[in-house]
Amino acid sequence: MSSPKPTLSSAVRLSTGNSMPLLGFGAFLNDGASISEALKAGYRHIDTAQMYKNEADVGEAVKNSDLNREDIFITTKVTSENDGHGYDKAVKAVDASLAELRSGKEKRLETYKALLEAKAAGKIRSVGVSNYGIHHIEEIKAAGLEIPAVNQLELHPLCQHRSIVKYCQDNGIVVQAYCPVLRGKVDLPVFQEIASRYQREPAQILLRWSLQKGFVPLPKSSTPSRIQSNANLYDFELSEEDMAKLDALDKGDEGANYDAKPAVLEAFRAGYRHVDSAQMYRNEAEVGAAVRESGLNREDVFITTKVASQGHGYDKTLKGVDASLAKFQFDYVDLFLIHDPLSGKQKRLETYKALLEAKAAGKIKSVGVSNYGVHHLEELKAAGYETPTINQIELHPFCQQKPIVDYCKKNGIIVEAYCPVLRGDMGHPVIQELASKYKRDPGQILIRWSLQKGFVPLPKSATPSRIHSNADLYDFELTDEDIANLDALDQGDDGAISWNPVNAP
């Protein structure tokens, strides 16, 4: 007897006895309006996290929806960011599930125990994990704690985590899939071909694949039409042959950054000579391969990489520099940044010292920082270290970081701008009006704003046409009035769309 076909109201029963809707809405980078739109579209499963900084927006959207609270399934998470793990901290943060846990076995188990106690107290209905490998779940089992209800993983045809998925399915753990539509990078021919045959959008094909694999996909969007489209999945089914075609695309862990090399090569063809990578992006080897394949001289290309807080500390950083050079297959890196300030003052200073020593040894040309607030920069000055050459921060009209920018300009620190095109969410009327006025893409308007402000913008894309468009900026200029109109959009820290940890202690 065949199982019933899923619908938008279908749910899966968790090991805790609670039911979770089969399709979730990813709230990352989304505000209350997008979440309200998702609820209107029929979503009853919202995935948020403390680090997304929008839990209040989710709560407000639910409150304003006229839906019963018990009819909506809400997930949130506590991460290791700002050292948020540990028994006492987790007890205070009982509205969180586990996310990317890099705090070590002891703190993971303490955090999990605290969440279970909060569940026993009636404050949480289900406890789960995110980005957990088999060994992480096994340590929970070995500690005699109940199995997590959910494991949330990056899951799509290019990154299928088959061994983790099988383990979860064998142990009654529901698998949630984040990045199910590859963050919009759906231009592979096989996606396009299947989408054309079913007369569907490529994203709908990927979400349907996820559902038919038995996962709970968590697509995210702030565009009303796409939110609606991502829920319109229940009147068609992929054939076994098409499922097999998508299954065959699996690249294992490499699938998480599958497009780095071709995207970098396309950027070189478009004229870019500055590539921004990082250890945590897991694509240094692909960037290095693209440089060699491009035929460009190494000295004509500027390569940046970064060490994140997990790799901070004097010895770790020195080893990390050598590891990055080995992956790039380079003799030197042009710019090495401290990726974030989350490791605390002592480790930040140790890390900076190690990078300066690697610079003195000829392994790095320039040393800089990323996501540093004024107090982080001041601690470098107080320690007697040379001023960083760069501070790379989130910068766009909605998040202008004016105190940090002013400090950097006064101290001769170049400001690089990440997220300059708002991760593609450029529907604001002011941006659209200027794009129409100048007959340009909205992305070009935002990047031009960044250039005229004196920043070094770092747009990213895997789409060839957009890569070229983002470089076509030098035959027009925004007027002072239009710059002022964009300046007026500033929302301070509330305008951030990424992690933006500039206020870390």
UniProtKB/TrEMBL annotation:
It holds the Pfam family Aldo_ket_red. It comes from the Eukaryota. PROSITE patterns: ALDOKETO_REDUCTASE_1, ALDOKETO_REDUCTASE_2, ALDOKETO_REDUCTASE_3. Residues 36-250, 259-424, 431-490 form the NADP-dependent oxidoreductase domain. One of its GO terms (molecular function) is oxidoreductase activity, acting on the CH-OH group of donors, NAD or NADP as acceptor. The keyword Oxidoreductase applies. Keywords: Oxidoreductase. SUPFAM superfamilies: NAD(P)-linked oxidoreductase. InterPro entries: AKR, Aldo/ket_reductase_CS, NAD(P)_OxRdtase_dom_sf, NADP_OxRdtase_dom. Belongs to the aldo/keto reductase family. PANTHER family: 2,5-DIKETO-D-GLUCONIC ACID REDUCTASE, ALDO_KETO REDUCTASE FAMILY PROTEIN. This is NADP-dependent oxidoreductase domain-containing protein. The lineage of its organism: Eukaryota, Fungi, Dikarya, Basidiomycota, Agaricomycotina.
